What we know:
Number of strands: 13
Number of domains: 2
Distance between the termini: 41 Å
Order of helices and strands: HEEEHHEHEEHEHEEEHHHEEHEHH
Helix content: 25-40%
Oligomer: single chain
CATH superfamily of the largest domain: Type I PLP-dependent aspartate aminotransferase-like (Major domain)
Largest sheet: 7 strands, mixed
Strand content: 5-15%
Radius of gyration: 22 Å
CATH class of the largest domain: Alpha Beta
Shape: globular
CATH architecture of the largest domain: 3-Layer(aba) Sandwich
Amino acid sequence: MAQGDSVQKDLLERAAAVIPGGMYGHQSVGRLPDGYPQFFSRAEGARVWDADGKPYLDYMCGYGPNLLGYGHPSVNAAFVKQLEVADTLTGPTARMVEYAEAFVGMVSHAAWAMFCKNGTDATSMAMMTARAHTGRRKLILAKGAYHGAAPWCTPQRTGTTPSDREHQIFCVYNDIDSLNAAAAQAGDDLAAIFAAPIKHDAFVDQSDPDLAYARRAREICDQTGAVLIVDDVRAGFRLARDCSWSAIGVQPDLSSWGKCIANGHPISALLGAEHLRKAAAGIYVTGSYWYQAAPMAAGIETLRLIRETDYLEHTVRLGQRLRDGLAERADAAGFGFRQTGPVQMPLFLFDDDRDQRFGFAWCSHMLDQGVYMHPWHNMFLCAAMTDADIDLTLDAAERAFTQLRKEAPTLGPVPKMQFLVA
């Protein structure tokens, strides 16, 4: 590598030669502002370091897995201790039973648990269990909701066929009339209603579930024998120490979990009510690494910390400080700055910014100051963040708003985003 070149640049060039598109999936920076680092070298607590060694206060938390802090000592110690004894074997260890017991003991609707690796695995298992239980085909999903990257649910349909989705019916989140119409269209072939714990779609304002909407989803399933599924992969344990909809008093039949349930170690889960046990036992799902013991040991310790620490209250308090401080600074700079979603899972959007020119520029200025934020995806706070981190963020935001005000008249649209926000 020539003097003056960066490690980041070198990795980008090498990746372009051996990885299709240079990178793929949700961690590709192709849809982020220019200058966002694609490769990272290490992480600790609430921070990540890019491949060139620049640190960032990370409000993406690995797109959600970092709940307690990167490299959490006791979680990693549990992982390493188990790894040194046994991990990927011909059969599971006792950690699988212990993890399932701990999970079922915390989630009020659950009588059993099954483990997998990714959120897509867990939502796909939920779909299969619902269809096995009901003998039906139709699924109701909310428009714009994300449930994974398998052919039946991927948001980018290249490489899929219409038949992958032929039994899906879409409604509008929090719209009871739309939900009723979808249920009527499904008729006696309704297998399941998929529900996001909150509306956390990309590019649009987030919103909490309306209680009447959630209750109506539960009522439809009770009346028809369909299965209510809460996809808690993204929000699980970030809103409650139980399934997210438990906070509004609506219990699903199945819930899908992932991301932070082992604080970044690779494991996901499907949890279910007793009456779905037989159906879950009847489907065939598996993976060579689904039964690994070390991630389950990390998960057991993570669940203990979720039960016994104030991580949730801490992130809510910091999130409210951040929200109040950003609102004050945006208003002082003269920007319409919308903050939606739970304070511990925020999304920031600018008014009158359909082409993302303000959002991209502001986030780029934040990145330049060592604060990693996302212009169109919800973000996350983690328990390793501190009041000093919020102060740092607010100071950076004030400077970013000031700079944005100066350059606003000359900012052009972001062409590569137009097809995404249409």
